[in-house]
Amino acid sequence: MPEKLKELFFTPAFVDELGQSIAREHPAFDPARFAGLVFDELWGQRELKARMQHVAHCLGQTLPPEFPQALEILRAVAPAFHGFNAMIFADFVEQYGQDYWDLSMPVLAEFTPLASSEFAVRPFIARDPGRAMAYLEAWAEDGNEHVRRLASEGCRPRLPWGMALEVFKRDPAPILPVLEKLKEDESEYVRKSVANNLNDISKGHPGLVLDLCERWYGHSARTDWIVKHACRTLLKAGDSRALRLFGFGDARHLSVQELRLSSRQLPIGATLEYQFQLLVSTPQRCKVRLDLRVLYCRPSGKMGSKVFSIKEGEFEPGQHAISRRLSLADQSTRKHSPGEHSLAIIVNGVEKAQVTFDVVASTAPIP
User: Fold this and answer.
1) Is the domain of 128 the same as that of 218?
2) Pairing between strand 286-297 and 265-267?
3) Would you tell me the crossing angle of helices 48-62 and 87-96 to the nearest 10 degrees?
4) Which end of the chain is more exposed for a tag (fewer CB within 10 A), N or C?
């Protein structure tokens, strides 16, 4: 079994190295006491992010109590650390630096090339959006791509694993000047963040995002990629305006025939194969987007839904055989439950065929 992610970071070796580094910079620091606080009786129960926050909290208990002095010590030792382990430095600022904006915001930009400060900056934004966004707008013009990415990633309204920014879920307008500055960024790393930010916004304000995407689309390959990635949720939802933007037209002359499954009953963990014929009845080739919508049975009795992209492109008139697979293996973000499921083929935003199948417990016999 693969090692859990939380066991790969904040290991005893890392905690010891960090403690020794701090002690060399600040001889009054006690590495043994620091390690003893970190590995307390609750350590094994904490998940990855909770462990990060706990290590930063333990630094707060063992470094000098004055934030400016503690911060200078961490600034001196931080460059020796990179990756997820280094996120404790930004987390320390989040926990202890919210009354020291003039120190904390610049140092979050300083720490972000070591490990992103995208989580740590969010409480500052929530506390004073106008003041925080002035920093983010300046970061959007920084020479370092990690800092420019922080300008976008830090203000995403619905950042995974991060606190939601309710103020921007209600009104994302303050985010847009940052994204305008970054829409032609030379770094794909930055442009992907811009697209993800817009995708977040589209979940609450689809019209605003489509207005922006219609202005951006067609000007450069960079902005075209951002727009397409930003509209992924709208496309999967079958939004007609988003579909038209990318040339996916009326579905009346497109149909699905002979939808077949490899089995109508499968155990959790199995792979379902499905195939169908796409019939294009237009007089000339046309752009088609094919999606798969799966309705999952849930223990509560309610159905969960997820849409997967199958294929998109230009299709000639006539029949086209399509076959794909669907994994029923449990994942960290999706667990399967026994019961009736359904599978539907969506063509240019319109459901064209649907079939049901049963999922059974992995130990149950299949007739």
Assistant:
1) yes
2) unpaired
3) 60
4) N
**Structure-token match 């070591």, residue found:** 114
The Cα 89–Cα 75 span in angstroms is 8
* CATH code for the domain in which residue 289 is found: 2.60.40.10
- What is the number of domains present in the chain? 2
Residue 165 lies in a domain: yes
Sign of the alpha-carbon dihedral angle for 279, 281, 287, 288: negative
Residue 351 CA to chain centroid, in angstroms? 27
Handedness of CA 99, 105, 110, 112 (dihedral sign): positive
Q: Which two tokens stand for residue 244?
A: 């038209």
Residue 233: how many CA atoms within 13 Å on its side-chain side?
Answer: 15
Confidence (pLDDT) at 363? 64
* Averages of pLDDT over each 10 residues, the chain, 367 residues: 70 97 98 97 94 97 98 98 96 98 98 97 98 98 98 97 96 98 97 98 98 96 97 96 95 96 95 98 96 93 92 97 96 88 97 96 62
Domain boundary among 225, 245, 265: 245
Q: Which of 226, 245, 264 is the last residue of a domain?
A: 245
